Fold each of these.
Amino acid sequence: MTKRLKLIAESISVIMLIGVAIVAGYIVYRQFIQQTRVQQVGLMELEEQAWRRIGEKIGFVDGYIRLINLTHKEVLIILYNYGDYDITIKEVRIYGVFINGSIITEVFKLNHRIPPGRVSYLKLYITKPEIGFPPGSLVKTILITESRRMIEINLKVIRGGGL
Amino acid sequence: MKAISNYIAAIITVSMIFTSIFFLVNTMIRQSRLSGYALNNMSLMIDKARESINVDYIVRKNNDSWILILYIYNRGEVDILVNNIILVLRNLTVYKYNVSYTVPLGSISRINLTLKYDLSEILSIKITTLRGNVFDILSKTQAPIDKLILVNTTKIITGSAFEITLIISNRMNKGVIVNPARINLSFINYISKEYIGDYFEQIDRFPEDAIILNPGSQVNIRYVYRYRGGLSIPTIVDLTIYLDLETVEYEYLESSGYVTYLFVITG
């Protein structure tokens, strides 16, 4: 009788141990899979950024600021996307001269998409009398793309009547 | 019982090993694709840096439109594909011409463009290549043939002779045949822009015959003219020259130059 009881008790303990082992093993396994997946996703994200960084190429073709009158100024920037990815210009920062002679930054927020292999131009209008550009000078301008890339260009200031 | 738990442990271990190997192989494949792309881009960038051209332009009037003829000489180390011509007018209107001209190594390509607007309206002309280079057409430093015109006097009276010296230098890597008889000099009234060539006669020209201008060398061509008289005082005279050239490989190349305020007629 006692021998039989001992056998039952032993098999119960073995089953419990197996159960614990299975659960623990499963948890370890799940954890491993989770970990590798997180690593993989992180790596893919980094890789995607690397692809974009290599494939995004943009060239500055030409750019002008035309002084129409004291208030109106027309800005033209021609860009050539010769890379493999779309490039979206998010911000244009133009450095002008303020009334008292200090430097002022004119910031344009925009969403100008240039497909690969395309020459595209963007036209901006400044209608502020207090910001000025000396004719014949070069104006430093910074373009910021969606991928946080900064492109520094120089715009030529020309006089032109009309309007 | 023990055997079952061993099996389960073995299955879990094997699946973990396979997952690891799959991710490892996957990462390796992706990495090699990325490095291949990077290498390809690097070689493209090197090719871009090897693109080099000499460019010249000439303008002809055709009824009510202008024809702009571009001569592109490829002096670089790779073939060039010109894919965009961009014109900017003074009122900042942009005209884009999508073209596709291949300029092989060491040869001259000619591109014709018909313009419907006045030429004085043009602010800049740029061309782009497939590899991403941007070249300025109007920049004089990029011309294949460099021209310089000098005159020995700035004031002309009736009956007097004067010398015009034309210095032509070859910036290309191949010889050019310069024939002084095929160089056309025309005198223009600075104010009215009309041709006044009939008031001047050519007395002498040196050299007389065609010469071959070797790469990197230059030639001075001297013209002696006499003013016959007949123009009002003072008339400011401009000069345009048209060079009608051929390379030693029988490629056609035109070039033009313009001098404002060449001299003033004072008597």
Note: The first helix of chain B runs from residue 2 to 50.
Amino acid sequence: MSTETPDRSGNPLRDPLDRRLPRIAGPSGLIIFGVTGDLSRKKLMPAVYDLANRGLLPPGFALVGFARRQWENEDFAQEVHDAVKEHARTPFREEVWQQLAEGCRFVQGDFDDDTAFETLKSTIEELDKARGTGGNFAFYLSVPPKFFPNVVQQLKKHGLSQGTGESWRRAVIEKPFGHDLASAQDLNRIVHDVFPPNEVFRIDHYLGKETVQNILALRFANTMYEPIWNRSYVDHVQITMAEDIGIGGRAGYYDGIGAARDVIQNHLLQLLALTAMEEPGSFHPKALTAEKLKVLGAVQLPDDLGKHTVRGQYAHAWQGGEEVLGYLEEEGIDPKSKTDTYAAIKLEINNRRWAGVPFYLRTGKRLGRRVTEIAVIFKRAPYLPFESGATEELGQNALVIRIQPDEGVTVRFGSKVPGTSTEVRDVTMDFAYGESFTESSPEAYERLILDVLLGDANLFPRHQEVELSWTILDPIEAYWDKHGKPAQYASGTWGPAEADEMLARDGRSWRRP
Amino acid sequence: MKIDLTDTTSARINTGLIDARRAIGTPAVGMVLTLVIVTDEGSAYDALKAAHEASREHPSRILAVIKRPGRSPRERAGARLDAEVVVGDEAGTGETVVLRMHGELANHAESVVLPLLLPDAPVVCWWPDQAPEKAGTDPLGRLAQRRITDASSAEDPVGSLVVRAEGYTPGDTDLAWTRLTPWRSMLAAALDQKHSAITSAAVEGEAYNASTELLALWLADRLGVEVERKVSDGPGITAVRLFTGDGDICLDRSDGRLAELSVPGQPDRHVALKRRETAELIAEELRRLDPDDIYRATVKFGVKHLVSTARSGKGTDGGGPTAAARATPPAAKKAASGGKAATSK
């Protein structure tokens, strides 16, 4: 799916037929702001090491940390070392570490500290000389969005946001991309003011997952599914992302944001787009984005938002053998908070393929178990030539794409129960993607960091997609603000009773994932 | 779960596989290919270990064919099949059947293997040591899309490259070639950057090392320049130098672990370039099951070159391709300039 990689046809050692040779990033470096944070320690640094271990990083790759802490280069290297040892997926190898450690630098300072950015600039120049990074740097903003304007302005002010000659500078930002359309547009304006839109990479780590990329393979590499992938055969689609944990220490971030903004706006709408979009002309980022935008643009909200959306808050209960606090009892949460920790919405897509097929999206914290899946539920057979009673236990056929954990695909269909009488019951057929391939399959962040360094924007949502997603969610949030309050649901269950009623109204029910 | 079957048949082994699966409660698994390993008692253990590790990435049914034709005429006259069916943890993610073929049966291994292949899944045949001269027409090799040999395990590694080239059938590949991938990708990455024209090159490595030879051939073929083959103490390949007008592009690995890359106008940098385990090599081989055209071009380029030096008398003794090849490594031969041969487009 790499189409934006630099043209290397002039290289006699490369040949399109030589498929053993991996995509190696060109000379470059990664600068992480907020390098002392959790994400950086648990995901980014290990991912960089894993890439190096797989031989996908260029020789002389540089990793620069920027944070307030009083560290020397060696302290930083030690920190990376520890993070790698603890969290990397590939085995620790001294020689790989040696290669990586030589390119580790640390810059200490605040985001409004001019001298720190001057130091950063000289560090970059030093790396170009000592490591041959060629002026190519990606700035990873692993900091709360309120610091974005500060950081990008500083990068601009100190001439760091633009490379000289052919070298590139890229910005990598993490969600949340705003909290509504207006703020998302502001954010885009701020970032695009400094970096051109095609050099801004928005990380939605879901899109880096093998299983999500596999949706495209499943749909567009096979003949079996596409003919039934439409309103004639599909009854409805359920997209679920459930977490079993509470908000943990993220009260400050989470309160006022809620499940819908945190998850539905980005992950679930992206999954919806990939499930429902038409076949792109190619896997070029432009073609892919065009199809996603088309389908997101066709999304239609229900007329009565009160009946077809539900939000909830987890309540004090026993969950999986542990007594857990309710949301309103969590430390740092206003006991009168109306923030949703559970959200379920019904959407329709107005186009020829999907008219009349509801897409139910739900997400929540402290639900039964951690699971993300897309379930395509098919219509019942129009006529069943069996005796009455024989098909009583037969449900609807379903195709379930399991995103995590236990990645794979399940097909659910009716089968005869062995015996002399005819009785049909649901059985499942499983393809376990994760079970056998996880060992070598790269972590989402690995793939995404490599793509940033290669300049391959395929797995990154574009700003139009982000803005369009907010246009879908904003009316729902506005309605919730004015009407009622979140329903309470016992922690460890599958959400509030209102959510079940919401589907019952349509004559359907939620799958137990 | 392990089931031993003595004096058995393929049908009974198939039943054994199903029984074993049922017993551990996973009747169906997503195995993606059948890996047939043709080996002897001595190498079977290591080969199976590597295959089991590789099966974590490629869940497969592994069939180890161990031929025991027997030493005495009496042993040779009898024919017997003993099998060991292993399913579950100790067999990696797939299932393993070790087939011991006694007596005359050793000459008809394909009759045992055919019924045991997974339906509709690709077949890969691997000879960890002695491979047939023409893998593509070998009765077991014919069952496979992909045939993996290992020139480095042969008595005469370099000579066996000539054999591989002459007997090449699409789908053949050699672990001596697989071992080169990290070197090749690092060199290709180095040439992705701007550099002035390469005038000639040198490859240094152990004597009698098929990989070093292949790397020199690949460079000569792709770059169309003269490549000098130098002998060093190893381990394996120790250095590649590409000479350009501005200076040398050099990838130097003296300890088999960490290499140093130097490019004119750029600082020297370290690159991890560890020699890999067999399991990693097999895992790489199983990733792609279509014919490797670059390997074909390289090995064929080699045979042409080796033959031509032999005939024109530049080789030391000129006794035919194999002899010429055998004589080359210590004599620090020059791989031909080769012109624009075999660009394989």
Note: The first helix of chain A runs from residue 38 to 53.
